[in-house]
Amino acid sequence: MPTLRLSLALPAALLAGVLIHAQGTPPAAPLVLLTREGRRPIPTILQSGQELVALDDVATLFHVTIREDALAGGVTVGYRGRTVLASPDQPMASVNGRLVSLPAPAVRAGNRWLVPVEFLSRALAQIYDAPIELRKASRLVILGALRVPRVTVRIEAFGPPTRVAIDITPAAPGSTTHEESRVLIRIDADAIDATLPASGGGLVEQVRLGEQPTTLVLQLKGAGVVNVATTSTPTGARITLDIPAAGSQATPTLPAVPATPAEPLPQLTGPPAALQTLVLDPGHGGDDVGTRGAAGVLEKNVTLDVARRAKALIEARLGIRVILTREDDRRLGADERAAAANNSKADLFVSLHANAAFIPSVAGAEVFYVSLDADMEAARLAAESQSVALPALGGGTRSIDVIRWDMAQARHVESSAVLAQLLEEQLRQRVPLGPRPTQQAPQRVLVGVNMPAALVEMAYLTNQSQAKQAGSPEFQTDIAQVLYETVLRFRSYLEAQP
Amino acid sequence: MSRRAVVMAVAAAVIIVLAAWALTRGLERLMTAPEREAERTESAPVEPGAPVRHITATLFYGSDDGQWLVPAQREVPFGDTPVAQGRHIVQAQLEQPATTPLVGLVPPGSTLRNFYVTEQGDAFVDLGPEIVAEHPGGSAAELLTVYAIVNAVTANLPAITRVQILVDGKEVDSLAGHVDLRRPLQRNDALVRHTGTQ
Fold first, then answer.
1. Where in chain A is the domain with CATH 3.40.630.40?
2. Which of A26, A96, A293, A483 could share a disulfide with A297, CB 3.0–4.6 Å?
3. What pLDDT band is residue A152 in, cutting at 50, 70 and 90?
């Protein structure tokens, strides 16, 4: 009898386990679909650390059709004659025959299909009429072109006086209200994408999101004076709040002046910076001149000039080490470039290039990050499942990831997508953008790079006016600024990662 | 040494050199014969009066704004095997000029050296060195050139899902420093636009 009881109890327990597993848990904050019409929650669940959305909810929210594909063993999402096939076997979807990577495969739970939320921005967006952008950190899925600026808050000086800087990119009008020990900052936008300091400092107790989706709250350690100044920066707007020590006299509101953006002061304490070394890769070189532009402009020279300017700017302002894969005019293979980055244990890799088209009218900057083919995807999965424990100096072991050296980029594709997006945002502020601002492609130089990496095609040298521009110090300084701003933002992104 | 012995030695040396030459040339001919044979049959001029069979194939050209691949229906010679047909299609993609308003995506003068298919269904397109020497460079132009060829092969030969481009008989990193050609590439539909929908 006990045997029978056990034989019944065990499957029941397993079934319950499976059900709980299939259901998952709801995330701490709901994901919100932001459209011109307003906000609608997107129901999601967390399962093994992965946030999933049910395709029947996607069908309702995005007006797509869902069809189970018994033959292919997956599920097909259709929109106006275009289709995406998601498979339960592999963490990828096929968009009109082209593979896009997903962080996890589709899951069947009862009669529902669940897919990772990244499915919306990576797969559905490719067949949809309007842009779909997923900003996981701010719990947003943005459908259509809406104003959702990135808002980065930093405590620049603990003081007193304590100085807090709020950068809004792109610029959006902001207003502040000061009540007792609380400062409310309201930003006029459809939503905000906020990066906040993990803890307070100086006279600031805490910085948090307000109850309204476009507000921030600065909680002070006591009631006091707050001086507010708004300045414009090359890429957006900055609100600076100065909080003098309690009891000191209020100074008149600071005039909105500095023509050059105030730079964040170096932090004296805290954990090691998330971004310490950047590798800039000036494309081509030596007898490989790259694209030839009008008036004798050569791609190999433009890329090296821009890299030198960016190195000077970033090292001086951010204190980040910048390594150039080539310092002079010489030919370098793709593997040598990747090796220079990998061997220096850099945190970020940006390859600089200038573009060409078959007709002269095409113009504008474009950003590439690597696309995963089936081989790369396999390498990524293998890297996730295989790690080797090696004895460490002083006892214990440490885990070493194993990945094919020639496909090292496969495991960084998600953060490379973030990097590409930041580059596009910054380029948009300063130079014309090309027809496809961000693309995935099997870029040879990126494939072996073992860190977040992107390639920037700064301008089309086959376009006469762009070729002239590309050779000018103004344009090259603009691109150097783009790289500086991107590195600054990518560092914030890295710091916000768990 | 007698005069006779010297003559004998010289004659022997000449015979050895001639034999070696004949042997190497012969071997070379022997090695290359099937390929040449194949080339002859592929490109054999059609007898006068005999009907030339053609098929309608999809080739790829640049859109008038220079940014997309546009499929175009073109007549290409019929090939009785997938390899023969693939060869005709790539040759047509390299040689048939674009018609206005479309734009050519392959440098003029590009040649096909060889075309073959592995048991796994991967096609290898071996191009002459002109495609590298004459290419304008740039990621955008390179992507369009590479995928015009890859898509032309995969769109017309359903059994082939991947295409690897070789140059001058050898595996290459890329055509102009950007698109990774070390592995076979799949068809790319993201770059394709149909003229009617532009």
1. 277-496
2. A293
3. confident
Looking at the complex, report in whole angstroms how far the Cα of residue A442 sits from the nearest Cα belonging to chain B. Answer: 6
Within chain A, all domains assigned CATH 2.60.40.3470 are found at 150-243
- Report the distance separating Cα A164 and Cα A145, nearest Å: 30
Is it true that domain A150-243 has CATH number 1.10.260.40? no
Domain that holds residue B189: 54-197
For B177, which of A284, A362, A435 is closest by C-beta distance? Answer: A284
pLDDT per residue over B13-45, tens digit each?
Answer: 666 666 666 555 544 444 443 443 344 344 444
Indicate whether B24 belongs to any domain: no
pLDDT digits (tens, 9 = 90+) for B56-77: 999 999 999 999 999 999 999 9
Cβ distance A462 to B138 less than 8 Å, yes or no, reads yes
**A347 to chain B, minimum CA–CA distance in Å?**
22
Q: Which amino acid is at A138?
A: S
pLDDT of A271 > 60? The answer is no
Specify the pTM: 0.57
Q: What residues 192-221 of chain A have any CB closer than 8 A to a CB of chain B?
A: none
Minimum CA–CA partner of A361 in chain B: B65
DSSP string of A51-83, one letter each residue: EEEEHHHHHHHHT-EEEEETTTTEEEEEETTEE
The CATH code of the domain at A23-143 is 3.30.457.10
Does residue B192 belong to any structural domain of this protein?
Answer: yes
Give tens-digit pLDDT for B72-124.
999 999 999 999 999 999 999 999 999 999 999 999 999 999 999 998 889 99
What is the CB-side half-sphere exposure of residue A288 using CA atoms within 13 A? 20
Alpha-carbon span A319 to A74, nearest angstrom: 49
Spatial separation of the C-alpha atoms in residues A286 and A361, rounded to whole Å:
28
A308/A300 Cα distance (integer angstroms): 13
The vertex-A48 CA angle with A10 and A348, nearest 5°, equals: 155
Residue that has been written with the tokens 């290898």 in this structure: B124
At position A307, the amino acid (one-letter code) is A
**How many domains are there within chain B?**
1
